[in-house]
Amino acid sequence: MSVKMTFLGHAGFLFDDGTHQVAIDPWLTGNPVATMKPADVKVGHIVVTHGHGDHFGDVEAIAKENSATVYCAYEVMEYLNEKGYEKVQPGNTGGKLVGDFGWVAFTQAFHSSSFNGRYMGQPMGAVLHMGGRTIYHCGDTGIFGDMKLLGEIYKPDVALIPVGDRFTMGPELGKMAAEMIGAKVAIPIHYKTFPGMLADDISAFAPAGIEVRPLAPGESWTCA
Ligand code: NI
Ligand code: MN
Fold first, then answer.
1. What is the phi/psi pair of residue 45, to 5°?
2. Which helix (DSSP H) or strand (DSSP E) does residue 162 occupy?
3. pTM of the complete model beyond 0.90
4. What value does the mean pLDDT of the chain take?
5. Banded pLDDT at 121 (limits 50, 70, 90)
6. What is the pLDDT of residue 124?
7. How far is the CA of 152 from the centre of ligand 2 (A)?
8. What's the CATH code of the domain at 110?
9. What is the extent of the structural domain holding 36?
10. 213 to 37, 105, 141, 145: CA distances (angstroms)
11. How far is the CA of 93 from the centre of ligand 2 (A)?
């Protein structure tokens, strides 16, 4: 069992276990580092961590194009329903949602969540289980001590950790987060996208005993 992960740049990923295709935060329109276009995204499921444009911006269009099921906060569902899209599974922090691909569990994230000035519910992280593998996407968040607890509960194989600073953890705190979560592979996200705003140099993201595997936008890696 394995999952092929493709980095969309910034915080977006595609996951493919050979049967099911799932996206998390597939933001491409206006993404300065993206190598793909929204029309290139072919998925049956989309997970949304929060409503900010750099995560949610393309979700409505990609969902409609693919007739994909969207897993998101209740308030994000209300927004999509108002836009005429009903294929949505709402959830909130702490809950697990089961789909034909596996399951997704929402975790806390210390951040905010709005879209064009509208409140979009709690910001969250997402633990995705498919293809026999478990991936923890932290969402946009500061560090918190219960990352250790989440590691114990979900035992993720891979952690996707924001390290760009300013809006999330920087590389030093991301290192501590990776060590608390304890996944054997850590992939840095949410950095470099906006020069001068997000960190370029993340050399301090060097968690002890954990493989750091940065992916270039458009690059794939298989978690076997
Ligand atoms: Ni955000
Ligand atoms: Mn963000």
1. -145, 140
2. strand 158-162
3. yes
4. 98
5. very high
6. 98
7. 26
8. 3.60.15.10
9. 3-210
10. 24, 23, 20, 23
11. 18
